[in-house]
Amino acid sequence: EMEVIVPFKGMLGRGAFSTVWRGCTCTGRVVAVKTVHGTANATSREVKICRRLSAANHANIVEFLGVYYHWDEHGAEKMNLVMELVPTTLRNLLSTLSNRQWRIKENHARVYMFQLASALQCVHHHNIVHRDVKPENILINPETRQLKLADFGSAKELVPGNTNCTYICSRYYRAPECILDRDLYGLEMDMWSYGCVLAELAVGKPLFPGHDNVSQLVEIMRVLGTINSE
Q1: What residues have CB less than 8 Å from 67, skipping those under 6 apart?
Q2: Mean pLDDT throughout 60-69?
Q3: Is 138 within 8 Å of 116 (Cβ atoms)?
Q4: pLDDT 10s digits, 203-213
Q5: Which residues are tagged catalytic?
Q6: Does pLDDT of 74 surpass 90?
Q7: Residue 94 DSSP class
Q8: Could you tell me which residues are beta bridge partners of residue 157?
Q9: For labelling, which of 44, 70, 133, 197 has a CA lying 20 to 30 Å from the CA of 118?
Q10: Which candidate, 43, 51, 41, places its Cα nearest to that of 17?
Q11: Nearest 5 degrees, angle CA 172-CA 173-CA 179?
């Protein structure tokens, strides 16, 4: 669907299931190319969700441009998702500020969190849960203050009554229902992650920095008190 000139222009980031490169289309547009290492089922689901959200044309969701395939040096087929290139991530911004012992300006935090809420509202309108809302997956343009929610590799359309994987979402941003293995969770888990991101912008570091599920619950209870059935 999308012809991309190779070789890639340089790696932008690497995760457990994908690598993101700087690429260039045949028309000369510089783009981000996400090479997925996951299973066929997961990758096809990501493409389906990206196409569906792309049709919504939301200003705060990263633009999906297409998909193409290539074969690596071992002969394995790799899927590549082509997206608009956004200058940096919220994680990079927070790290830069932290290294200088600075905090994000309150008015900037308000602008970013409003846009993230708008993006999640669109995603949730389609009954899709992102399941990995965190600063690394939030792209920003520091000059325009525009935010884009990205990386739908963990996203899933919810089906009433169907169970869902609970070992999902980066730990610092993982909702209690996932930590407690409640597999009928809903869109609310993204809102927990949203709150964790908001708190991190406010205090300059993750609010619940657990190193495993048990310590994660301890950190949550330290701030919010004992977890009850609600």
Answers
A1: 1, 2, 47, 79, 80, 81, 82
A2: 92
A3: yes
A4: 999 999 999 99
A5: 132
A6: no
A7: H
A8: 128
A9: 44
A10: 43
A11: 85
